[in-house]
């Protein structure tokens, strides 16, 4: 039962994935990172609020369905 070069290929693929993954060493201090994340979260929330104003009825319907289950 030989694996041939499968093990080597898997190692190469693993290395490639590691380089593509989110790198925490982005050159920012923890304070700068918090500020960046805070701004992104605020933008996301404001976007959700904007969508909620137009599609408020669908959210109310979903909430009423879940209200009976406990």
Automatic annotation (TrEMBL):
InterPro entries: SERF-like_N (IPR007513), SERF1/2-like (IPR040211). Residues 1-34 form the Small EDRK-rich factor-like N-terminal domain. It comes from the Eukaryota. Residues 1-70 are annotated as: Disordered. Pfam families: SERF-like_N (PF04419). Residues 1-15, 22-46 have a biased composition (Basic and acidic residues). Residues 56-70 have a biased composition (Polar residues). Belongs to the SERF family. This is Small EDRK-rich factor-like N-terminal domain-containing protein.
